[in-house]
Structure formats: structure tokens, C-alpha cells
TrEMBL record:
Gene3D superfamilies (UniProt xref): Immunoglobulins (2.60.40.10)
Membrane-spanning residues: 649-667
Acidic residues bias locations: 685-698
Keywords on record: Membrane, Signal, Transmembrane, Transmembrane helix
Presence of the UniProt keyword DNA repair in the record: no
Highest taxon, organism lineage: Bacteria
Annotated spans, Disordered: 675-698
Species per Swiss-Prot/TrEMBL record: Anaerotignum propionicum DSM 1682
A Pfam family per the record: CARDB
CARDB domain ranges (all copies): 275-367
Residues annotated as signal peptide: 1-28
Keyword Protease: no
Protein name: Uncharacterized conserved protein
Length: 698
């Protein structure tokens, strides 16, 4: 019996061990499935920094997951085109970040290139581990918004000195001064040089033509000096020398400015020659055709030195009506200071002259001993009479277009328009008759599919029109229907109206009038269809790409693509430039919503047509932006496993209760039947012998 009892107890213990062992393994599995860490950048991803100086900014490294993150390390992915460098003190070791916890990390931003006033993306790479020593990686993008472009560097030139303070032809002098930085920013890579120099005026006598300074701090100064020499034959006077300053600001932007400094050459001002025409004697009375007349005057030098290389030219303003009868050019090698010389010129009227007063121009050129030429002009007048020419020029009737109107005002290429004209006879006493009018346009158009021809073509009529007569001060109206060829370029065309007519005596006349017709071409921008998600999580980039084509017949100017709305975009405005007819472009960008809720976003393509009118193609969208959501794995796991855990506990308790009950019954039975122990033992032995025999037979 003891053996069988032992077998039963052993079997019961094994069953309990198996059940309890399965329960403990399930608990361990449940513990390992609680969640994973997830590292992100918390807070605002847009960081403002002052360009040109070192900045320190703090960001939150946040664990958005449901498990701790250990050995968190952050590094900065740097672009070679970035004009700045971002570093992390301590090498980027963040340490551990608990579930839903965060650590502050400091970023140091320094600059090493030319910075623009915009926002630059910076990518942060993260590596970290969980409690099971599994490795995770992630990347986040932040944006650096550049500030500090308000104040421009400035300077002034001070203590400008010319030693000696005046130069004479052929002499040298030293020009010195000081550059003072009176702005709010340092001047970098400063170069100062002299411009507007010439070997026949003022030039450098030696040394370098520019000076370089590595930097001039705020409130600092730098001295400079240049050696100058005046040309030996230059005239006295004040001559400008341009002082040019080139430098860079702290953003690396190159700036160039110039100022003029005047150098006195010739000693005291006014010591030069000065010629004047005095005692001009103009011909009196009236002179007929081919009748000579003389103009004379005194040339006086009122200057302090001699005038040299003097040239006096006499020229009638109307060379066809008045011609010279003597030499029209006279030269004088030198005229001393205070000296006078008398000059005279003879002229006569021609058959082409009318009965009127004609002007004669006298031009005087001279030098003060150098190469600089001084020039001045003076005029005289003479009365000429020519009755025969006056008769030829008697009043004649004239036809003009006194008023015209286009309907529409701006004509579209490929369409018809009305041209209404008022034709007026301007003469008060003479009428005109037998009037012929026709239109011409000098400019023509051509294309591969069409022969050359006029821009404007009459509709249902010829190009020639006839009127019987128009009386003195009379007026007639003409209405034309014209067609504009489709290939006409957008601009204002000049339409010529030609008249051929006669007066009452049968004398023929011609006249032309010019009309301006404004032609405009149809402009059209074809934008491909595209779409963006209706719902997006805040902070998630939205990509946009599409093609667009100029399907019109003219070039589109200043094409620009813009992203409008409360979103963050690296380039909200992209300048494309000009697009020829038939040209196509492709645009792609991405933007990130800044706020939750309904966010309107517009993609706008703007351009100017040939007339300068601004036009737009818009695509408007409304984004449904949601708040960033927490991971659902951890909550779902807890909700699903809670009932399972209670069930396992109840099973374990039931098994233990059954085991205890069986053990209790067994002990009680042993105490109640001690007298049967021997008999049962014997029976048990017999049973065991029978069992053994059965086993052996088997």
C-alpha cells in the first residue's frame, strides 16, 4: 500500500508543478511585453538664433514610449552646404530617459559662411536601448530660424588730409585718412582703394593701389595713405578721386561703397585762363538771297594765365539756308591773360532760306596749358528775306485723324475689333476733294504655317477707302472692322493712315497719320492635378509635387511658386523666372503643419504677362491636422491580459485547494483505521506479488 500511496502522491505533486510552472512562464511573458521606448524631440522644433555669433539653445529629448530608454546618444547630421555648425557639449551622451520622461540637451550653433534670412533644417540622429538590451534608432528634424539682419555695418572716412594741401601739374602729394567703424557690426576683410585715376590727370606715384585690413571692430579705426602725382600738362582745377571701400559683414555678405575726395590742382582756385566774347556786332537790316553779311566780335582772356590752342568755329544753325562766305574755323596758338583779339566771319543766305531770322553759332575751344579742353558757345542772328520761297510755303490744306477709338481698347490676338476715326480738314478757308485713304503697317509677322503679312487685316472690305470732299474745317467719320492675326506679339503697333487728296486748284497733297493699337495675347498656365492628404498628424511633413506648362503663345515673366498657410516650409517662395511658350517645369516641396485643427493651405503660381499684369493660378486645400497620438500597444496589452491573469490565478488556487483536500482526507483515513494495517499490508503484499507476476507474464 505504501508504494501505491507514494505513486499517487508523486503523481499529484507532478500535476501541481506542471500547472504552477506554466503559470509562472505566462507571467514572465506578460512582463516582457509591456512596451518599447521611443525617443523624439519635444516642444517647439523651430529655434531662433542670431546669425553671425555663437548661440546656445536647449531642446527636450523626450521618451514617448512605454518603457525606459537607456544609453541614449544624439548626434547632428551636418550638410556641407550649411553656413553653420551645430555641436553638443559632452559629445551627445544623454543617458537614460524614463517612460514619458525627458532630458534637456544643449545645442551650440556657430557660423562659418554667408547666412540668408531664412530657416535651415537640422537632422538629429538618436540611438538607445531598452531593458532587454535591444538597440533602437530614430531621427528628428528641427529648424534654425536666422535673426539679426536688422543692423547694417557702417563706417566713415575721417581725418582726410592732402599733404601738401594743393598740387601743381607734375607735382606729388600724399593722401591719408582714417576708416572709423561707427556701426553696430564688425567690418571683415576690408579693402580700400582709389578709383577714377588717370595718367593724364591724377594717378598713383608708387606703392600699391589698395590697402587690406583683416577686420575693424565696432568703434575701431584703421589708417591708410596713398601717394598721388598730377599730370604735367593737366589744367588747374578740382579733380575728384573716388575712395572705394570693400568689406564683408559677419554673415559673409560682400559690401562695396565709394566716396569722392576732391584734389586741388594748380594752386589757388581761379588761376586759369578764361575766354569771353565781347562787343558782338550782328548785321542790321534785312539781307536777300546771296547778299553777304559779316559778324565780328572781340575774344578776350579774363583769366590769370594764358589760353592756348584756341579754336573758334562759326556754324549756321540751318546750314541749308545760310552758308559761310569766309573761313568758318579760326585758330589762335596763345592768348595771354588780359589780351584781346578781334575775329570776323562772312555769311550769305541761300535760295532755300525763308523770310525769317537765322541763328549762327560760334563755338570756342581752348586749354590752359594742359590737355583739359574748355569749351563754350555763343549765338548771333541775321534777318533774311526770300519772297519766292514764301510763296511756295503758302498755307495748304491738311488732313489729320483728329480722334480715333478702338473697341475693345485692348485688342486680343486672333480676334476682330472696331476702329472708329474722325478725319478733319484743318484749313479754315480751303477745302479738299478726291480723297484716297489706305492703311499700312511696316511691321509684319510670319510663322511656319503662315506666310508673312500685315498684323491687321480689314474684314469684308479692301485696304483702300475713298471720300468725295471735305470742306474747310470739315470732318468725316470712318468705321473699320479689322482682324488681328493670331501670331501677333503682345505690344503696341503703329498703324499708318495715308491720305492722298487735291485742293480746289487740283494741286495734289499727301499726308500720313500714326495710330497706336494695343494688342494682347492670351496667356494660359496649365497646372497638373495633384492632391494632399485630408488628415495629417501635426509635425508630419506633407509632400507636394506637380508639373506646370505655359500653354499660351507668349512668354510668362517672373514665374513664382508659393506655399501659403500656417505651415513650416523651408522655401515658401520659389522664383522660377521666365517661361517661354510651350515650356514646362516640375515643382516639388514639403511642408509641416504648425497647428492642429483645420489648416487652410494654398499652392499659388503667379506670373506676369507681356503687359506686366500679375496673374495667379491657385490650388486651395484644407488640412485636418490632429494632435500627435501616444502608442496604443501598451494600453491594449494591459487591457487584453488583465482577464487572462485573473483566470490563471483562479486555476492555480483551485488546484492547490484540491491538493490540500486530498492530503487531508488521506491523513484522516490513516488515523481512523490503524487496526487494519497488518491485514491491509498483507493484502497489499499479495496484491504486489500478483502485480509482479502479471508484469512478468507481460
Amino acid at each position: 500500500m505504501s508504494k501505491r500511496l507514494f505513486q499517487r502522491v508523486f503523481a499529484l505533486i507532478m500535476m501541481c508543478s506542471i500547472v504552477l510552472g506554466q503559470t509562472s512562464v505566462i507571467f514572465a511573458d506578460d512582463f516582457s511585453e509591456n512596451g518599447s521606448p521611443k525617443i523624439i524631440v519635444g516642444g517647439d522644433a523651430l529655434i531662433e538664433v542670431v546669425a553671425g555669433q555663437e548661440n546656445r539653445a536647449t531642446i527636450q529629448v523626450k521618451n514617448k514610449g512605454g518603457a525606459p530608454a537607456d544609453n541614449v546618444y544624439v548626434s547632428v547630421k551636418r550638410s556641407p552646404t550649411d553656413p553653420f555648425r551645430v555641436t553638443i557639449p559632452g559629445g551627445g551622451d544623454v543617458g537614460s530617459v524614463g517612460a514619458n520622461g525627458y532630458q534637456n540637451v544643449t545645442l551650440v550653433v556657430t557660423f562659418n559662411g554667408e547666412v540668408k534670412e531664412s530657416s535651415y533644417p537640422v537632422t538629429l540622429d538618436f540611438t538607445y536601448r531598452n531593458a532587454n538590451d535591444s538597440t533602437f534608432t530614430s531621427s528628428e528634424t528641427i529648424y534654425l530660424k536666422m535673426k539679426g539682419f536688422d543692423n547694417e555695418p557702417s563706417f566713415k572716412l575721417d581725418a582726410m588730409t592732402l599733404s601738401p594741401d594743393s598740387m601743381s601739374p607734375g607735382s606729388s602729394a600724399n593722401l591719408s585718412g582714417k576708416i572709423i567703424n561707427n556701426g553696430e557690426k564688425d567690418l571683415q576683410d576690408v579693402d580700400i582703394s582709389l578709383e577714377n585715376l588717370s595718367t593724364d590727370k591724377i594717378s598713383l606715384s608708387g606703392g600699391f593701389s589698395s590697402k587690406h585690413f583683416a577686420s575693424i571692430p565696432i568703434g575701431g579705426s584703421a589708417n591708410f595713405a596713398f601717394s598721388l602725382v598730377a599730370s604735367a600738362d593737366m589744367a588747374a582745377g578740382n579733380y575728384p578721386v573716388s575712395i572705394k571701400l570693400k568689406y564683408k559683414d559677419k554673415f559673409g555678405k560682400a559690401v562695396e561703397k565709394a566716396q569722392d575726395y576732391y584734389v586741388n590742382v594748380g594752386g589757388v582756385a581761379g588761376q586759369k585762363s578764361q575766354l569771353e566774347i565781347r562787343n558782338m556786332k550782328e548785321p542790321g537790316g534785312v539781307y536777300g538771297v546771296n547778299q553777304n553779311f559779316t559778324v565780328s566780335f572781340d575774344l578776350y582772356n579774363s583769366g590769370k594765365i594764358s589760353a592756348k590752342n584756341i579754336v573758334v568755329k562759326a556754324e549756321p544753325v540751318d546750314a541749308s539756308a545760310v552758308v559761310p562766305k569766309s573761313a568758318s574755323v579760326k585758330t589762335i596758338s596763345e592768348l595771354k591773360a588780359g589780351a584781346t583779339t578781334t575775329l570776323s566771319f562772312t555769311f550769305a543766305g541761300t535760295a532755300a532760306a525763308k523770310s525769317q531770322n537765322y541763328a549762327i553759332q560760334f563755338t570756342t575751344d581752348y586749354t590752359s596749358g594742359g590737355t583739359a579742353v574748355t569749351s563754350f558757345k555763343q549765338f548771333a542772328g541775321v534777318n533774311v528775306s526770300n519772297p519766292s520761297k514764301d510763296e511756295e510755303n503758302a498755307s495748304k490744306p491738311k488732313l489729320i485723324v483728329s480722334n480715333y477709338e478702338c473697341n475693345p481698347l485692348i485688342v486680343m490676338a486672333g480676334q476682330e475689333f472696331d476702329l472708329n476715326m474722325d478725319i478733319l480738314n484743318t484749313h479754315a478757308t480751303k477745302g479738299v476733294k478726291n480723297i484716297k485713304m489706305f492703311l499700312t503697317l511696316a511691321e509684319e509677322t510670319s510663322s511656319d504655317s503662315q506666310k508673312s503679312g500685315n498684323i491687321f487685316t480689314p474684314v469684308n472690305s479692301s485696304n483702300t477707302f475713298y471720300f468725295d470732299a471735305i470742306g474747310p474745317k470739315g470732318k468725316t467719320q470712318k468705321k473699320l472692322r479689322l482682324y488681328v492675326v493670331p501670331e501677333a506679339q503682345p505690344k503696341t503697333y503703329t498703324l499708318t493712315v495715308n491720305f492722298e487728296y487735291e485742293d480746289a486748284a487740283g494741286k495734289e497733297f499727301t499726308a500720313t497719320e500714326l495710330l497706336g493699337i494695343n494688342v494682347k495675347q492670351v496667356t494660359e498656365m496649365q497646372v497638373d492635378d495633384f492632391a494632399i492628404p485630408e488628415t495629417v498628424e501635426m509635425g508630419t511633413p506633407v509632400a507636394v509635387s506637380f508639373g506646370y506648362n505655359n500653354t499660351g503663345k507668349v512668354t510668362l515673366n517672373n514665374v513664382m511658386v508659393k506655399v501659403e498657410g500656417d505651415v513650416e516650409c523651408q522655401n515658401k517662395s520659389t522664383y522660377i523666372g521666365n517661361m517661354d511658350s510651350g515650356a514646362g517645369e516640375y515643382f516639388e516641396t514639403s511642408f509641416t503643419p504648425n497647428t492642429s485643427g483645420e489648416v487652410p493651405v494654398s499652392i499659388v503660381i503667379s506670373y506676369e504677362d507681356a503687359t506686366g499684369e500679375l496673374k495667379e493660378e491657385r490650388r486651395d486645400f484644407v488640412l485636418n491636422v490632429t494632435e500627435p497620438m501616444m502608442p496604443e500597444d501598451a494600453d491594449n496589452t494591459n487591457n487584453e491580459t488583465a482577464p487572462l491573469d485573473m483566470k490563471k490565478v483562479m486555476i492555480s488556487i483551485s488546484i492547490l485547494a484540491l491538493f490540500a483536500m486530498g492530503l487531508f482526507i488521506f491523513i484522516r483515513r490513516q488515523k481512523q483505521e490503524p487496526q487494519n494495517t497488518f491485514a491491509e499490508s498483507k493484502n497489499d503484499l499479495d496484491d504486489e506479488d500478483e502485480d509482479d507476476r502479471e508484469d512478468m507474464s507481460l
